[in-house]
Amino acid sequence: MTRRRKRQPTETNSPLKKIREAAGLSQEELARLMDVSASSISKWERGLAEPTMTVAQMKAFCGAIGKTLDELPNSLIAEEELMESDRE
User: Fold this and answer.
1) In this predicted model, what pLDDT tens digit does every residue of 43-62 receive, in sequence order?
2) Closest Cα partner for 16 from 56, 54, 55, 67?
3) Which of 3, 33, 34, 53 could form a disulfide with 64 if both were Cys (CB 3.0 to 4.6 A apart)?
4) Phi, psi of 68, rounded to the nearest 5 degrees
């Protein structure tokens, strides 16, 4: 019988993940504060989906991480993910 290997966590350069972790929040905590699913946060951080937020969700995000909109990077997508999407 073959044993399934546990999936190794993938390293990511996700600005969203770095901001969330700097704020000391788990994906679940941030998701609850923003009124989105934790799977959405996970997909955004792994580059599987582009972050799309309502104004209310963006305000909640800024409040949760303790930053203003002006303090956020221009993109919450990792640079290598942007380059991949440009190739498509």
Assistant:
1) 999 989 989 999 999 999 99
2) 67
3) 33
4) -90, 165
Q: Tokens 């972790």 identify what position?
A: 21
Amino acid 51 reads P
The single residue listed with the structure tokens 């609850």 is 32
**Mean pLDDT in residue range 78-88:** 54
Compute CA distances 29 → 2, 45, 61, 86, whole Å.
36, 14, 11, 32
Lookup: tokens for 85: 């999407």
Average pLDDT, the chain: 83
Tell me if 10 sits within 8 A of 46, measured CB to CB: yes
CA distance 1 to 8: 21
CA distance 87 to 30: 31
